[in-house]
Amino acid sequence: MAELEQYPFMPGPRGLPAGTYSKRREKEPLGKVRLPSGDTAYLTTTYRDAAAVLSDPRFSRDLSRPGSPRMFPGFTIGDAPGSLISMDPPDHTRLRRLLTGVFTPRRVNGWRPRLRALTNDLVDALPEEFDFLNDFAFPLPVQIICDIVGVPGIDAVRVRAWSDAMLSTSSLSEEEKLTAAMEFYGYVAEMIAAHRENPGDGLLAAMIHARDGEDRLNEEELVRNTLGLFLAGHETTGSVLARSMFRLLDPRDGYERLVAGPELVPSAVEELLRTEQPGDSPLLRVATEDVELPSGTVRKGEGVVASFAGANFDPSVFPDPDVMDLRRDTTQQHLAFGRGPHYCLGANLARMELQEILGVLVERLPELTLAAPARDVAWTEGTIIVRPVRLPVRKAGLR
Q1: What sign has the CA pseudo-torsion 8, 13, 14, 17?
Q2: Which residues contact 190 (CB under 8 A, 6 or more apart)?
Q3: Class of 13-394 per CATH?
Q4: pLDDT digits (tens, 9 = 90+) for 66-117
Q5: In sequence order, what are the residues at sequence separation of 6 or more whose Cβ sits closer than 8 angstroms to the Cβ of residue 4?
Q6: Distance of alpha carbon 265 from alpha carbon 142, whole angstroms
Q7: 329 three-state secondary structure
Q8: How many Cα neighbours within 13 Å face the side chain of 127?
Q9: Where are the domains of the chain?
Q10: Peptide bond before residue 315 is cis, with ω within 30 degrees of 0
Q11: Which of 1, 33, 2 is nearest to 20 (CA)?
């Protein structure tokens, strides 16, 4: 029997998906891979298979069942019990209903003026040369998620350190990752305790009321899902923004097209979400019964990973998928936010943030450029998130 390929695959040049996806799509679109835990699972490489897995309730995210395969050994935030992303209905439905109202298009659009003002203020305050990732791409989403949750701020340095540790796949020991998770958990628990004394009117106040006044979630669910909001609310958006800016500035013609035609920003955001996802989907699912997919059958108890990278670069759905086409027809929606019950809760927020931030940048910084050769930009290793470690840029003029 041939040796199974190890998954996740090493990313290709510039953090883009490896050619392994296209090879497997041609020869074995639904085939098994070896996971870091040592378990095996099926990997989808086509859009149709991924969409089917994400939408089918027979694929469970609850991996606590005895014998269920695991993506990584030991503790991982993606499989932590009590988190929204590791639940199935009806518990998933109950918790998601508590949060959904905050992230509707109408509510999210109400945050546009605030984000636009924050972005303009940060553009004014930054020096001529700065690190786009750490000085710009991360601080903005952190402030917005703090506003939405209803807290004045967070210890961004420690939260970043905990996030990096929890998302690590190789550079830290299991004990170090678990310690980071426990410290982050304790930090959020203390925040909730303090918020109970002066709740205000943000999302956290609503969640506390649902816990204390209505008993609609337990304390562990309250803490874990508040932690998840902070983790997802800054890490993913900041990473997509940094990757997108790198792609637009090298070669720079992509950025120049947006400067000349800012009306392209919404479609550009969709194309960048398709191509610049900061890592393939790490969320493993297990079949609760035999399921027939377009490319084959997954038996009861077997695991499957619905690959976002495979789906979003499937040439049968997105012609010339490796080409960044800022005018691409978005009728066929990419899977950067998933699909089905676990469709990303913050999708509307992430879209709005990318649209507003990119719109301000092309208006205020039309001459923005890389401040170092693209070949010298280092990329993360040993982590679920694939993004530049630093992204030095130069304003070269300000409007």
Answers
A1: negative
A2: none
A3: mainly alpha
A4: 888 988 877 666 666 678 888 899 988 988 888 888 888 988 999 999 999 9
A5: 32, 33, 34, 40
A6: 22
A7: coil
A8: 6
A9: 13-394
A10: no
A11: 33
